Structures are given as structure tokens and as C-alpha cells.
């Protein structure tokens, strides 16, 4: 039985899919307005914006991300036909607000939302729910219900293509330094406060990254018939130096590997689903440059992009919500992720159990599951606004 031919159960029926992504500039004149959209309300100094703008200038002022999403949109339309598939971004056209307005005009009643972020975090999950909620607010009465599909960090449709990409990258390393080459899994750095607050009980971003990396590394070892040690590192850190962020930075991790005597490494951008700017600049230019200066041979593993298994995964995530009892594959003990984010999920300002304070300034992301038992819902503290729901349960 396929996702398209199953009998209707008591699941959530949908009449469209909405592809939700970050967006990026498409020419030099877009770069600053795009960066202002990304950083709106956060007082990012102009020097930082200029520094990031220079990364885009390196590529003619055009991010590859929108073309990559156009390709994913085409693949999803083909896979899901006749279901209509729409596309909207947080930070650049087509903006979610315009897309949701168009869906309303087209008479869409309920759409499933596939967000191009695999891991729990404010930027990767909650902020997209805020974006969807505000697009609904702007569209007004008659706007479609929006149902966000679950996070997919350990879904086989994500893990298996990444295993292939790691195996291929290992093959690109010079033969003498290939055996036992360390796998350096990378994801976007987060301010520690956001990492601490990620997921329903905190610390989910790093736990999910480690879970996905462990599964991928294990399968790579099985495929090539040899063990490859792995570690997690972070790219694209920004923000003032006195604010703590997740560490180590990928550049420091590569330098430390070289100092420790490693001859090579594979950089695995597990935190991203396409080769956008944070990959082709921050990893392929910056981190690869660091490696070269330290005499470390590196290869970079590809991202899932439009791999047919990844496209099938979206169809399966949709089927999970439409048909109760549909298999919910998850290859690690961290998954499958929840369908509906509980109150305060990924909210950096959430009250912390026992302290009555927000997560900011908490301890490290590894040991931050608060004293509350995971199944118990904390009562909403006075003054905390009602949480964000873009849809009702089931
Ligand atoms: C978790 C995460 C993902 C993965 C999940 C997801 O995909 O959503 C992601 C993706 C992306 N991040 C991207 C670009 C940027 N991220 C920035 C800034 C930030 N990202 C953050 C986190 C994440 N980011 C954070 C905590 C910040 C700082 C605070 C803030 O600003 O929220 C800035 C501002 C400048 C700077 O300070 O670096 C830019 C330009 C692009 C587009 C690339 C292209 O154009 O091809 C993509 C896909
Ligand atoms: Fe979340």
C-alpha cells in the first residue's frame, strides 16, 4: 500500500502541501534587504551584516537556496500529484504571507506544512510556526488550517541518503588517509539559550544531532567495513562574543584534528537539507580553507536535496498524519518526533521548572532536562502568552 492509495481513516485530511523554507537573495540588490529580514528586531550591527553580505557577494549576490527549493517543489509536485503543492519562505519571496493568502483565494481548506529543517530549535521549528501563525493572521477569516509535519532528523528518508553521501565523500579522500578518517558532523550554531530551550524538555537540538550522527556513522562503518570516529561541530556562528553559543566551531574542530595527528576528515552538513550558502561558503570556502592551512585533507558530504528517498519521506510524513496506524519510522531512540509541539516547545523565553526563570543563562545543553518528569506538562506561568498553535490536535 502506498501513501496515496491507503483508505481514509480518522486522520487529518489535507487538500494541499505547503513547502516552508528560509529563503535567500537572488541578486546583489537583494542581499541587504534579505539580511535585514533575517535579523529584524535583533539589533545586529551593520558590520556583521556587511561581513555576511560579503559571503553572498562571493557568489554573485545569489544564494542557491531558492533554486534548490524550486527543484524540491517540482519533485514534490510530481510525487504527490494531484495534490497541489505550494511554497513559501520566512525571509524572501515567495513570502509565506503571500503564499497563504493565495492558498486562501484558491479555496484550500487544510494544508500540511513541510519545513526544510530536520532538528528542533527556535529557528528550525518554533519560529516557522510563528511565521505560519502570522501568515494566517494576515490572511484573515477563511484561511486554511495549517498542520506542521513532524521533524525528520532520524527518518530513514533523511538518514539513508546522508549515509550514501558520506561513503561517496570518503571515496574522494586521498587513499592513504581514507581509512579511519573522522566524520565531522556540522549544524548551524545556536546561542546556548536557544539550544537549552530546544524541544519540549530542553536540549533537543544537540541530542537529536548526536542521535542522527551516531546512526549515520554506524551505517557508514557497516557500508565501508571499517570504523570512522565521529564528532559534532557547529558552523555559521554570529552574535556578540560575550554571548555563549554551541561549540566547538567547525574550524576549531578541524584545527584540533590536525594538531592531534589526523590526516583527513569528512565534513558532513547533517544540519542542512540542501547545499545553500551556509554550506557552500561557511563549509566549502571557510572550513575547507582552515583544513587546508592545517594540512588536513577534507571532503564534504552532500546534502539530501531532492533525493527520491527524501521526497518519498515527505509523502510518508503526510500519510502518517492522514492515516492513523501508518508506520512512523525512526532510526534512533530520540524519534519519532511529536506531531504537535507542546506548550513552550523550543521557546527560549519559557519558564524553567523550579526556578520560575527563562532558559537564558542555563547550564550546558547536554545536561538540561529539568527536574520535571518528561511526561508532565508544566503549568503556564502567569504572564506567559498563550502558546502558538497553527492547528488543533488531530
Ligand atoms: C538552526 C538554523 C538553521 C537550520 C534550520 C533552517 O533551515 O531553518 C538555519 C538555516 C539557515 N540560515 C541561513 C542564513 C542566515 N542565518 C542567520 C542567522 C542565524 N541562523 C540561525 C540558526 C539556523 N539557521 C541562528 C540561531 C542565527 C542567528 C540569529 C538569527 O539571525 O536568527 C543569518 C543572519 C546573519 C548572521 O548573523 O549570520 C543568515 C543570513 C540560511 C540561508 C542560506 C542561504 O542564503 O543560502 C539557512 C537555510
Ligand atoms: Fe519545536
Automatic annotation (TrEMBL):
Residues at which Fe-coproporphyrin III binds: 63, 128
Keyword Oxidoreductase: no
Molecular function GO labels: ferrochelatase activity; metal ion binding
Location of region: Disordered: 352-394
Top-rank taxon: Bacteria
Principal place of residence: cytoplasm
GO cellular component, one term: cytoplasm
Claim: Lyase is one of the keywords in the record: yes
Summary of the function given for this chain in its UniProt record: Involved in coproporphyrin-dependent heme b biosynthesis. Catalyzes the insertion of ferrous iron into coproporphyrin III to form Fe-coproporphyrin III.
Name this polypeptide is given: Coproporphyrin III ferrochelatase
Species, as recorded: Parafrankia colletiae
